[in-house]
Amino acid sequence: MQLVDEKSLESMKSAARFSALVGCGIPVYVGHPDESPRSKARPVGKISRIFSLGDGIGVEAKYTEEAFRKISSGKLKSMSPRWRMQKLPDGRFRPIKLISAGLTNNPNIPESGRVVGALPAGLSSARARAEKAEEISRRAKSAAERAQKCSESARRLGELSRAATVETRMRLAKPPAKTGGGESLNPAPKKISPREMADLAARRSEELGEPYSKSFAAIRRQFAFHNPQTKGIK
Length: 234
Known about the structure:
Layout lengths: L5 H16 L4 E5 L14 E8 L4 E7 L1 H9 L4 E10 L5 E12 L16 H52 L4 E2 L5 E2 L4 E3 L1 H15 L3 H11 E3 L9
Parallel strand pairs: 1-5, 8-9
Antiparallel strand pairs: 1-2, 2-3, 4-5, 6-7
Helix pairs in contact: 4-5
């Protein structure tokens, strides 16, 4: 009795990697002609991947055009493995290496090794490229959205920073009043000339990029008009 378990899978995958490294790979034949050392049968495919199915193993293989047509048309429906076995103490045998596989309609174990899907090589690679392109597109879109959010945050931060800078400049321009004991009081609005107020409003409008009228209103709340008196000439 055969025992195909996780250890069996790992052993076969390790052996398959070694076969690929030395350039052999795991061949696929029609039937099992390689059981005879005198056979000169040529493989019709090569297994490229071994993977777990939970209750067994699955393989992915590439075929010649003729073999692929027979599989697609249903002339060849199953795949029979040729294993190298390890005898266990309980009398069972564990497959540890997949030597080859044979396409057949009469597998040793009924309903096993059934070919469940086939795609032309060109279509398979085209689908893989399409899926890859779709993934790249999704990532690019996500990156663009993140960049847009960062840009908006930076713009808002810049506006707040410029506003804080202007407000600080305005406050520094007003010397604080103090009591007799040296404690600061809320100073009365500093008086400046209309020309100075207009200059400050223009500067604020330019630095913040806001309408002049809005800047003038903000300056007007911080300063009071002072109309300098001119002395008459005697």
